[in-house]
Amino acid sequence: NAEYGEPFGDEMQVGRLVALVCCAWVTGAAVSESSGGPLPAAFSPDTAVAPLRHPDPDPGSPSWPNQLAVAIPFHISQFHTKLASAMARWSRPEFAPCSGGASALEGRATLVFLYTGDPDKDQVGPNQSLRSGLAQLWNQLGEKVTQCFGGGMHILELSLDSAHDRYSDAPCVFFNGMLERVREQGVYDHVYQMETDVLPVKPNWLDAVLHETVFNQDCERYWQRGSMAHCQVHQGRLAERYDVHINGNSIWCLRDPKLWEFLDRVQAFYPPGDHSGVAGCGTAKWAEVGVDHAMYRFRRDPANFEYLRTIIHLFTYTQTMLNKCEDAYTVAGIKADHPRTFLVHSKAPYLPEAVLMAREAVVEVFQRWPEQDEQARLQALIGQHGWGKHQLLAHLCQSAEAQELIENNNHPPRCQQLCDQHRRLFANYPKFCQLSLLREQWVHWQRDKLYLWSADLDPGPLTCSMPVLHDAGALVHTEVDSPSCPEHMCKDRLKLLRADSGRGVSLDPCPNYMRHAFFEAYKNDPEFERVDAFICSYPAANCELFMPFNRSLIVYVTWSAFDFG
User: Fold this and answer.
1) Closest CA to 300 of 274, 272, 269
2) Which of 231, 233, 223 is nearest to 261 (CA)?
C-alpha cells in the first residue's frame, strides 16, 4: 500500500476492507485507497464525476472534505511559454477542472501562484505587470472554470537568492517555500504542487484531486501522495537504480508537524554540496538532484531504518496523476493505458520536435539514453537535412556503434524491423539490412518440407537415419565436426562448437558458459528461424544447447552415446 508495495498481513487486509466499507457508508461512494486501490464508485474514466455528498451539513465535521491549495510555482520566463497555454487548456470542456453543480467539494479549492520576484514590478508585456497578467489569465478561464476554485486565485511571493537561481537549486527553493508559505496561510489542509508542465488529460481533474484528500485532515493516511516514474527506463537508468521515488508534483498534507520533522531530517542527512547549494536537494549521486530524490533515498538508507518504520505508510502512490518524465504522450494513449489518470507530468509538450525525435531514435536502436553532445549532433543533422524519424533511424543503424553490435551478432532489433517493414525505403543500406534479407530468403526456402538441423560430433548415427528422414519428406542439414565425416555432412557454417580430443564430446570446461555462448551466437541467425526441429544423437545430452530456441527436439539415443555429454 505504501511506496515499497509490501504485502499486508491478514489483519491489515481486514482493517483495510473495514475502512473502505465505512467510507462507502458515510459518503455514498467508495474512497480511493493508495496505490492500486479503487477510485470512488462515482468516478468513471470517461464521464463526469458525480459530486461527493455529505449527510452532515456542518463543515467542521471530522469527515468534511479538506481545503486544498492548487499551487503552481513558476518563473517569469514560463509565463507565455508554459503557464498561459496550460491554463487555456482548462477552458476546453474535455479538460475542465470540475463537474460543477452542488457538491460538498465545490468551493474547497484555491488556485495559488508561487512566484519569486515582485509581481507588481515584473512585466509580462508592454505596460502589463505580472499580477495583471495572472488576473487576465484567470478571467479568460471563464466562470465555469473559476467557480471550481471557490477560494479564488492568489499570489504568494517566495524569496530566491541569486546564488540559488540555477537548475540544481531553484526547484528545491520553490518546493520548500511552497510548503511553508501555503501552510502559513492557516486555511489549507493539503496542497497539490502542479508545475506548469502538468496537464490534464480528462475533465474533472480537480474533483479527482479533491477526492484524494477526503478523510486525511490529520494526515493519517499520507503525507505525500503522487506518482512514480512511468516513462522509459533509460533516462536515469531507473530500473538499474531501482528508482521508484514519488515525484514532487504530489498532494501534500500540511496538518502534521511531523512532516516538517521529516524534512529537517532529510536536509540534515543530505547537506549542501557540489550537486546543489540547498540542503536536502538531492544526494550527490548521479541522476538524483531534487527534494523528491533526497526524500526517497533517505527512506531507503539503512541508517534510517528504525525511523522509516514509523513513517513508511505516509508515502503512497496514486494513479490520479502520472509522471511521464520527459516522454511524449497522447491523450488517447493515456486513456487507454492508464484509465484512472487525470493529470500527466511531462516536459515533452514543451520540447522541440527534434529533441524528442533524437531521444526516441537512440532509445529504440541502442536501448540507452543519448549523451548530451550526441543529442546536439543528431538535432543538428535533423535540422540540416530535414530528416524524419525513418531517416534518422537509418543513420543510427549505419553508425559505427550499430556495426559493432552487428559484428558481435547483436543486431539492433529496431534496425531489422525497419528493413522488414520498409525494404524499398532502405534498399540502399545493405549493411544493417543484410540480416533481414537473409531472413527473407530462409523464410521462403522450401516451405513445403520440414527443415531439421544437427551439430553432432560424429557422423555415424545420422548416416544411418538420414534415408528414413528423407523418405519422410524432411530436409536435414548437419554440421559435423569430425575427421571421419563425409564431405556432405561436414561443418560448413558451425559457430562455437568444435571437436576436442582432450575433452571428448562434453561441453566442458564450463557447460553453463557454453550453453549461453551458443545461444548468443545463434539467437539472431536467420537459418535458425527456419529450423523446425533439432536432432541430437552424438551426444544426445547436447540437446540442451537447443532448448532455448523453442523448437522440437529429436533425441536419437545410441548405445555408444547414451552417457556422453
Assistant:
1) 269
2) 223
What secondary structure letter does DSSP report for 485?
Answer: -
Pick from 314, 346, 304, 352: nearest CA to 327 = 346
Q: Are 204 and 99 in contact (CB under 8 A)?
A: yes
* The C-alpha cell that represents 67 in the structure block: 481545503
Residue 83: all three cell numbers together: 503557464
Pairing of strands 198-200, 109-116: unpaired
Question: 195 near 132, Cβ under 8 Å?
Answer: no
Q: How many C-beta atoms surround the C-beta of residue 548 within 10 A? A: 13
**Cis-peptide, bond into residue 539, ω within 30° of zero:** yes
Q: Which of 358, 413, 347 is nearest to 389 (CA)?
A: 358
| Share of residues in the chain with pLDDT > 90 (%) | 57
Q: What is the bridge-based pairing of β-strands 552-555 and 450-454?
A: unpaired
Cα–Cα distance for residue pair 180/336, rounded to 1 Å? 38
pTM of this structure: 0.74
All 3 cell numbers of residue 126?
A: 508592454
Under the banding of pLDDT at 50, 70 and 90, the label for residue 413 is confident
**Of 40, 39, 46, 43, nearest in space to 28 by CA:** 40
- DSSP character string of 237-266: TTTTTT--PPPSSSEEE-S-HHHHHHHHHH
506 sits in the region (left: phi over 0; alpha: psi -120 to 50; else beta) called beta
Cell of 390: 525513418
Q: How far apart are CA 74 and CA 198, in angstroms?
A: 12
Q: What is the pLDDT of residues 467-524, one digit of tens each?
A: 888 888 899 998 888 777 777 788 788 887 776 654 555 677 788 888 898 998 888 8
Residue 19 is which amino acid?
A
Q: What phi, psi does 132 have (nearest 5°)?
A: -65, -40
Residue 181, Cα to own-chain centre: how many angstroms?
32
Neighbours of 394 (CB within 10 A): 22
Q: Which triple of cell numbers denotes residue 412?
A: 539492433
Dig out the grid coordinates for 360 from the structure.
Answer: 526516441
Pairing of strands 315-317, 224-226: parallel
CA gap 453, 469 in Å, rounded: 12
Mention every residue, 6+ apart, whose C-beta is less than 8 A from residue 343.
194, 198, 199, 200, 201, 205, 208, 209, 320, 321, 322
Pairing of β 68-74 and β 190-193 = parallel
With CA atoms as reference, report the closest residue to 112 among 151, 65, 66.
151
Burial class (CB in 10 A: 0-12, 13-18, 19+), 25: exposed
CA 564 → CA 479, 489, 506, 514, 555, distances in Å?
Answer: 18, 21, 7, 16, 13
All three cell numbers of 387, joined, read 530528416
Q: Average the pLDDT over 63-81 and give the result.
A: 85
